[in-house]
Structures are given as C-alpha cells and as structure tokens.
Amino acid sequence: MTSALNNSLWIAQTGLAFAFVIHGRAMISPPESMRDRTGYLFAISPRLRTFIGVAELLAAAGLILPSLTGILPWLTPLAAFGLVIVTTGAMVIHVQRSELPNIVFNLVLLLVSAFVAHGRWSGLH
User: Fold this and answer.
1) What is the DSSP string of 64-93?
2) Structural domains of the chain, count
C-alpha cells in the first residue's frame, strides 16, 4: 500500500470516527435542542436508537484502534462495512421523511465508509 493511500485512509477513518462518535452520543442521549421529539432521532423507537448509537460508538473505535495498535487489524474494514449498513438504513429513514440534506450527508458517509472498508481489506492481503 502506498503511503498516500494509507494517509488518505487514515484521514477518512479519523473523520468517520469523529462523525460517528458525535452522532452515536446523540442517538444514546439526544441533546436538549433535539428533545422536542420532532427530529429524525425520534422517528425510531428508543431501543433501536440506543442500539444504533452503541453500534456507531463501537464502529468508531473499530475504525481506529485495530489499525493503530496492529491488534486484529481485520476489524477495521469490518467496522467500516458495518457503517455502510448503518448509513444505508439511515438513508431509508431520511427518504421516508423527505430530509434531502441528511440523505446527501449519509451518502457521503456511506461512500467514505466503503472506501475505508475496501482500502483496509485490500491492505490485509
């Protein structure tokens, strides 16, 4: 793997981890500004919202820690692939709610997650 590709993957991983830590925390404990119960966070059940939030936090850790430590590095592409699945589900909810900006943002997250999943999986072989 070239150093430019590796650097690009690290930038993508770090950005994704940051985004999913912020969003995962909001899913588990919505900020006061979103507690009016009209936002998309409340379009899903509290249990599912908590499950998704925990999954996002674990995926964020999985994007960084295995590659950083060299311990079980195959978990990094799996975490990224898991985020492809999560963002696909999020896009479905946002399409149902006609939330175009969120759909576009989720598409970007999906593409970056797919880039990391492919890049890190290819780097293992």
Assistant:
1) HHHHHH-SSTTHHHHHHHHHHHHHHHHHHH
2) 1
